Amino acid sequence: MTEPPDTRIARRRYVMVCVLFWFPLGLTIAPSVLLFTERGMSLVAIAGFVAAHSLTAAVLELPTGGLSDVLGRRLVLAAAGLLNLAAFVFQGLGTAPWALTLGMALMGAGRALSSGPAEAWYVDTVQAHSGPGAELRTGLARGNSAISAALAAGTLLGGAVPWALGLGPDAGARLSEATSGLVPPLSVPLLLAAAVEVAFVLYVLAALREPPRPPTTLRGVLAGVPATVADGLRLGGRDALVRRVLLSAGATGSALAAVELLTPGRAAALTGASESGAVVFAALACAGFVCSAVGSHAAPLLARLAGGGERAVLVSLGAGASGLLLLGATAASTGTATTVLAATGYGLVYLGLGAAQPIESDLLHRRVTRSGRATALSVQSLALQLVGAVTGLVVGVLPPGPPPWLLGGAVLLAGALLWLRRGGEPPAGPSPDAAAGPREAPRDGARAP
Questions:
Q1: Sorting pLDDT into bands at 50, 70 and 90, what band is 236?
Q2: pLDDT digits (tens, 9 = 90+) for 300-314
Q3: What pLDDT is attached to residue 46?
Q4: For a disulfide at 229, which of 66, 167, 281, 321, Cβ 3.0-4.6 Å?
Q5: pLDDT higher than threshold 50 for residue 438
């Protein structure tokens, strides 16, 4: 059957939103931890900054998801872009712990606002044109591939810029001297990220058309958000499959917290300098995101080969856990063979997580309706952020070496094992009476096609 033109347009716009939102975040991945270290911050302090991001996102996830369901996807996404813009400025120029904490908290607020609206807009638009049984995995997989590609490109550029500024006449040193140390080379990618956020906000306001919502007041918003949030929480409590998706998101958050906090220091220790460490980490992170893009692109095929989405999630998360355990096993030794094994483990983490994400999203979307879709995505993101924050704090106080890596690997392995028992996949689309809101799904629901 020929795909409707409106569906193809929606997919392209969704992919573009994914690129514009995540590319600036990619710019900050390589330099951030090393910049904070250069500013004199300890690993424990940096773990605190990461916790400020994760806990802010966790506190705001459900209210902001409900806000998107009440006010609309476009306005909430634009607000997320503005918050990220401010966050990048604080992180790039801040030298005091309070400024860096504020920057990370603002980024957490932006993350909370952005965690559901774009994907919810895409699913809403596709189902509006093709019906509730519309095929979603391809578009969701392409969106995840676009996110990974944007992160890969941003990370590579974010690591290369500080290194390039140190070449030739050493423009980086002159820039740092001219700004009295306020803008060292490692700050430049964060300021570039702030500029890209302007383009993101303008694109969202121009391209994400959605049906007009009933006029609402501040009182109506405040009344509507708690009810929508309660519906999302009740769905997670009643539906075993949704509950596994949420628990798996928490396990993913733990794995990502360990990898993102520990890898920059490991790369810098390998090279012996922050700037060269940023380049190595950027190349490594870029390769990881490419692996994630490959995993996301292959997700629909993997689901078919595995005999369903649930088995595919088990395989994907299991691969990611094996990668983290391999990183832990190689953390206490050096050598070429060890480095190759560690890089292989790093790639496995992102390959597995990249494949699992669109499959989990597809399972989730077929359990919820339009009225609570962004809220359900926010509950999923809440689990990821909250467990990630706790893991980051624990990683910050654990002794260096294998233990921090093995902690993340063990939690992700536990998330994979949740999918050993098949609970039945959801039907191809919500039932005709689903407009009333989330409802309990049959325990042995039909498998998706």
A1: low
A2: 888 888 877 888 999
A3: 85
A4: 66
A5: no
CA dihedral sign of residues 106, 93, 287, 405: negative
- For residue 436, being part of any structural domain is answered with no
- Residue 44: other Cβ atoms inside 10 A: 10
**Block residue for tokens 């969704």:** 14
Query: How far is the C-alpha of 33 from the C-alpha of 265, rounded, in Å?
Result: 8
The CATH number of residue 376's host domain is 1.20.1250.20
Report the predicted TM-score, pTM, of the whole model to 2 decimal places.
0.67
Domain that holds residue 51: 5-204+224-429
Give the confidence band of 233 by pLDDT, cuts at 50, 70, 90.
Answer: low
Is residue 22 domain-resident?
A: yes
* pLDDT confidence of residue 441: 32
- Provide the domain count of the chain: 1
Looking from the CA of 72 toward its CB, the CA atoms found within 13 Å total 14
359: number of CA atoms within 13 Å, CB side?
A: 34
Q: What distance in Å separates the CA atoms of residue 363 and residue 235, rounded to the nearest whole number?
A: 13
Q: Is 366 helix (H, G, I), strand (E, B) or coil?
A: coil
Contact 312, 197 (CB under 8 A): no
Least Cα distance to 198 among 208, 186, 206 occurs for 206
**Distance separating alpha carbons of residues 249 and 356, to the nearest angstrom:** 10
